Amino acid sequence: MKKVCHFFTSDRLLLVSLLLALVSCLVGQFQLAYIDDTVILTLFALMLTIQGLEETVFLRWLAQKIIQLSPTTRHVVFSMTLLSFFSAMILTNDVAILTLLPLYLKVIQYLATFKGRVTGAVLIVIAANLGSSVLPFGNPQNLFLFSHYQLSFGKFLSWLLPVAVVSLVLLGLNAFVVEKRPVSETTKLARPAKKQTAFYMGVMLILILAVLHILPYYVTMLIGISAIVLSAPKLLKRVDYQLLLTFVCFFLVVGNLQEWQVISALFHQLLKSQVAVFFGGVISSQVISNVPAAILLAPFTSQAQALTLGVNIGGLGTLLASLANLIGYKLVRNLAPDLRKSFFKQFTLYNLLYLAILILVGIGIIY
């Protein structure tokens, strides 16, 4: 019973979404048709695959190799920022941050007088957020929007590519103003399991092809999930069931909201124009984070481009804007508590700056 209580109470977003779902179902009705089974199944399959990839320590090995080859602190920050950005495209922003940020924080323990310590940590988190927004599989809100609006890969990429280019320029400029100091960290390299890495990469590829409708969806998902469960059943314990249940709860809430004529009409009226939808995505993300913001707003608007840009750019800003932001903050608080206050200040400053610039980019793309 304690484990069950902890499961629900340890995640505030899940707790709030569950309460809202219960109220909406009591006032309205419970219907399985409200739940998008495609999104839930895809998320589950990708989570299993990503957890398997994480166990192979391939990304950790790659990061350590980069650190070994980096002669200065500026090289470390620049390389880790780029790795965070590009790895998050496939492995999600959460995994990129959970893998790379602890490594970076360990390296800077040996550089107590390095002035760019906090900036590097901030850039790794921002890069993971921005990198994950480029492709449909990089984060949960993109996966949902890609499925909900039945988008093509080319169209989705064309919307987010300008944001990615501007983001890389900003991150590069930031990294190159970081103080340049020699690095002599000699961390022993992790040994990636080559066969397992190839296996999970292969499963990831077929899952992506299924999401893109190149392979038959349900058959491919069943094959991919079965292959992983049979080879490593322990990975079932590492799936983020709290996030999956949060999705289910929000689907129920939104499904009932659509049935209430007054509320449905109000949302449709508020989300008429592209600009309104874009800023609705940005602003709501600051308060409830971009995943629930996407689920909440999507059923009430056909402006797929504006909403996709809004919730992805809206992942910048406050700590609440993205769950990845909270993960980054918690890692710094636990692993480098002396940097917590300065991290929060720089994180907020840089995030608001990036948010302001990318809002202009987003408006430019819409028009």
UniProtKB/TrEMBL annotation:
GO terms for biological process: transmembrane transport. It is found in: Cell membrane. The chain crosses the membrane at residues 121-139, 159-178, 199-229, 241-263, 275-300, 306-327, 347-366. GO terms for cellular component: plasma membrane. It holds the Pfam family CitMHS. It is a multi-pass membrane protein. Residues 14-308 form the Citrate transporter-like domain. Keywords: Cell membrane, Membrane, Transmembrane, Transmembrane helix, Transport. This is Citrate transporter-like domain-containing protein. It comes from Enterococcus canis.
